[in-house]
Amino acid sequence: MDINFQLPNKQACLDQLTKLGIDYIAHHHDPVPTMEEVVKIKVEDGTAYVKNLLYVDKKSNYYLILANNATQVGKLFWKTLGLASGNMRLSKEEQIAEALKSSKGNVNPFAVANDTNNLVKNIIIDEELTKYKRLALHPIENTTTVEISLDDLQNKFLKVLNRQFTVLQLTDAAAEQKLEQQKEQQKELQKDQQKDQQNQQTLAITVKKSDFSEWYQQVIRKAELIEYYDVSGCYILRPWAYFIWEQIQRYFDDLIRTEEVENTYFPMFLSAKHLNKEKEHVEGFKAEVAWVTKYGESDLNEPLAIRPTSETIMYPAFAKWVQSHRDLPLKVNQWTNIVRWEFKFPTPFIRTREFLWQEGHTAHSTREEAVKQVYTILDFYEQVYGELLAVPVIKGIKTESEKFAGGDFTTTVETIIPQNGRGLQGATSHHLGQNFSKMFEINFEDDKKQKAFAWQTSWGLTTRSIGAMIMFHGDDKGLVLPPRIAKYQIVIIPIIHKDLDEKQLNERCEQIRQILVKLKLRVHLDSRDNYSPGWKFNKWEQKGVPIRLEIGPGEFKNNEVRVVQRFDNKKYQIKFEELNQLTQILDNIHNAMLDKARTELNQRIKQADNWKEFMSQLNQRNTILTRWCERQECEKEVKTKSGIESKEKDSEIDGQVQLTGSAKTLCMPLKQDQVKEGELCFNCGQQAKKYVLWGRSY
């Protein structure tokens, strides 16, 4: 029997269970990342819901625990293994990925097949599970639950993989009794809570922003930005998020129209012949290309690729349209979706298998014109991030190994997420040179009647920009929106009181709304009578609305409103006749958000002159600016060495979980000091040529 199989997805897992002769019942459903959602899945009588816990100690020993849903892992259990419970930690996202090639909410025993480095040496099964006929487990992905017997799991799956397991009692009677007491107390407490308080609790983010991965997942769902979908890596953009994308579209469209760029649309399918025409280009995307091979029950004569980018779709048409120098420049842009079947674990907005973007493509008669276009677009991207999203960026040039496949050079706007120090590529503008024009025969007759090839550019901005905005500005309460992209810039909340006529109060609020609408502000009046003001406060804070206006008895009597700013929680009164000040107040909020974000970004950039300083700063979650020789061999060595040394570090220093992984070049900033003769590369000691930013990245 082959014991070297790996299980990259649920279908591979189900196929392997069948191959091993394991009988199972499968239930397909929406993603269920928590046990609270898992137990809602209807299973057969006598089936136990299993929670799978991956623990790691300070020496990076991994323990995979399969526990009955009701079991609490107690101190007695760790003591039985000769371990101190204080030294054990639930594994972080990076550790789950390293050990099982899985992610939070997807830990399962089948994933040990992916543990090619044999990191998980301890598989412990809760003794309680032996009392059940079957176990409910996820086959790699949490969009499916299978019911299988414990005997099949032990003797047909784990045994085939030569994996040892131990059946142990995970808790003691005293702990169970205490747990039951706590449950009874909780039931009583829930009976006493009012409906409004329960709703507020449902709204609240349950973790601090310091627990960044979990915080982000909660924010995007509770702020109603994202809904999960049953195809891994694909997500539903809810109206609250799509409005932000529409604002980005409008703003960027206005910018590129000043450059006489026209919007267009090209098909999403391309033939293998066209995709493979530019060898270096296709190699850069080959692993991510999704293919259509069937229609109905029939096979296509030729498989069709779904666009990972559109150079090879557009350029055959460019060759038809460009005949003379009078046909240039040719400038088009399209707003569309892209599919790249990423193998890394998807993160909504940041790394997804399908995403929305704009991609611009231009052709010019001279290199100078094309290069100028590249940098003009780069400036536009900086404006999108700064003027709309209040996110600071660093303009730079990618190194040769990081540039766009098949291009001449790539410019980029990069940012750094303050919470974890990871770099995030915001948008790129590429100079393609004549590489593609020669390949696709985009040539023209110049003004001297000579045949010449066009000089080309391409550039793109994606919905990743929304993810950057969320990560920068959100706080422990949830989303914080910059005013210029918020669907509602202001929400008005009437505070009903026994001493105030409700009809008159609502009329006053509507009057205020109409005044603000005439000021061209986006305003919502929340006059629902089935929710309390406190619930509404929490709801709109959670969704990040920049300003809340409260009108209660005092405000009604004094012809004023109470202003509450979401960004800094600043509260103050303004008179009815001063409502026009809110336009300037919103601009001030935007500027303050950008200033704060710029300060936080700059605090994450450190300089290093040698390897020791470099690794010290990297392991403090910083991005590092160094002098560099520009040699690709040196760049590759830094990436390899930093990855090895990171794995050797403690995963926790001073109570803070450390990031692991290789450092890579983010960009060579456009604004930088000139490297002097005798100044050396921080890594190899050769003459330095440029300053470059290094960091871990998304």
Automatic annotation (TrEMBL):
**GO MF annotations, alphabetized:** aminoacyl-tRNA deacylase activity; ATP binding; proline-tRNA ligase activity
Q: Which residues form a coiled coil?
A: 172-200
Gene Ontology biological process terms from the UniProt entry: prolyl-tRNA aminoacylation
Domain of life (superkingdom): Eukaryota
What keywords are assigned to this protein?
A: Aminoacyl-tRNA synthetase, ATP-binding, Coiled coil, Ligase, Nucleotide-binding, Protein biosynthesis
| A GO-annotated cellular component | aminoacyl-tRNA synthetase multienzyme complex
What Enzyme Commission number(s) appear in the record? 6.1.1.15
- Pfam annotation, one family: ProRS-C_1
List the CDD domains hit by this protein, alphabetically. Answer: PrdX_deacylase, ProRS_anticodon_zinc, ProRS_core_arch_euk
Q: List the InterPro entries.
A: aa-tRNA-synt_IIb (IPR002314), aa-tRNA-synth_II (IPR006195), Anticodon-bd (IPR004154), Pro-tRNA-ligase_IIa_arc-type (IPR004499), Pro-tRNA_ligase_II_C (IPR016061), ProRS_core_arch_euk (IPR033721), YbaK/aa-tRNA-synth-assoc-dom (IPR007214)
Enumerate the spans annotated as Aminoacyl-transfer RNA synthetases class-II family profile domain: 244-482
What this protein is called in its record is proline--tRNA ligase
State the organism of origin. Paramecium octaurelia
